[in-house]
Amino acid sequence: MTPPVRLTVGDAVVARIAAATAREVPGVVALRPDLAQTLLGLAGSLLGDRSAGDALSAAGASAAVQDGRAEIALTLVTTLGHNARDLSAAVQRAVAARVRAETGLDAVVRVTVADVLLDVPQAERESKQSPQVPPPGSR
Amino acid sequence: MEVGRTVPGGPAGETLGAAGPADERIEPLACGRDAADVWDHAVEGTLDAHERDCPHCRAAAADALGLDGVVHRMAAERPVPPPSVLDGVMQAVIDTVTAELRPQDLLALDSPAGPARLSRAAAARVLRHVVDGMDGMRARSCRIEPVGSGSGRTGTNGAAGDGAATNGGGADPFGVTVAITVTARFGVDLASVTARVRQMVVAAGEQALGVPVRSVDIAVVDLWDEP
User: Fold this and answer.
1) Chain B: nearest CA to A55, how far in angstroms?
2) Is B86 at the interface with chain A, CB within 8 A?
3) Minimal CA–CA distance to B62: which of B70, A47, A66, B213?
4) Domains of chain A (ranges plus CATH)?
5) How far is B190 from chain A (nearest CA, A)?
6) What is the residue-level pLDDT of chain B in tens, covering all 227 positions?
7) For A98, B14, B30, B163, which has the most beta carbons within 10 A of its beta carbon?
8) What ipTM does this complex have?
């Protein structure tokens, strides 16, 4: 008889998965690290990163795992041309699905769109101009 | 450093590399002494008669003392980070602190997949950008307030779901009102152009941001003339 196995997934693991997944969502330009992560990144780049250079970056993501649930917070930057609300939903779905697939944890993903960059590539801007014609009946 | 010149075959370098107990003996100096011993004696000031006279040992001892001096001099120097590094660190810290988003700087987004928020400043920048793109119009300021936060305080400091219950707006936790000030080119028809501004702002709010704009206040604060 096999003994029961307890699998514990650390906060950092979830944060790294979340960050890596979010970065792949189209429309996400970058994740924005918080102050602590900025300082850590600076220290790493100045002193030479001794903490496993191949580790996935978790900058811009934080996670707390508790009772089989993961609370994830992501701060991201997008560009004009991606609807912030739809992008947030897309990121939330992608990250929650990936975290569930990789760790088995149910995840609540809190997304903050910190910035919308205005300098969109020309092609994207043109394709964006057309749908900007106001819908009829808008007040 | 100069080790390779005076100790043929570079055994002294390997001695340094061994760093510690002289358990592995390497090729001795031409006079038969071990270079590592001579180095140790030179640093400790306990050179014996042979080591003081023998040219090979004296060369090794001179190297040891020279290196010792350099090491001590460098150890005594207080390292100062180059200005570029200091500036980089300070700039990164300042950028992060100024970009720090507080709950009242955020608008709730109507995401079905969880709590989502948008920087109010970023949203205002997008709307200003849209107005700037219009012919004969320049945006100046743009203020976005959630509907139902009559006195300017927003209730969006929690999850969006909670926000729906606690927000003063009640039925409309995601709607916003936009107050924008613009300057217009002299000669444009203000009535029609502001109507277009309103339409553009509503459309941009919905399509670029995903924020339903419930009302738009437009104040034309100045006129400019094109030469």
Assistant:
1) 22
2) no
3) B70
4) 11-33+59-131 (3.30.70.1350)
5) 18
6) 444 444 444 444 444 444 445 556 577 888 888 888 888 888 888 888 888 888 888 888 888 888 888 888 888 888 787 778 788 778 878 877 777 777 778 888 888 888 888 888 888 989 999 888 888 888 999 998 888 654 444 444 434 444 444 444 456 788 889 999 989 888 888 888 888 889 989 998 888 888 888 999 999 898 988 76
7) B163
8) 0.70
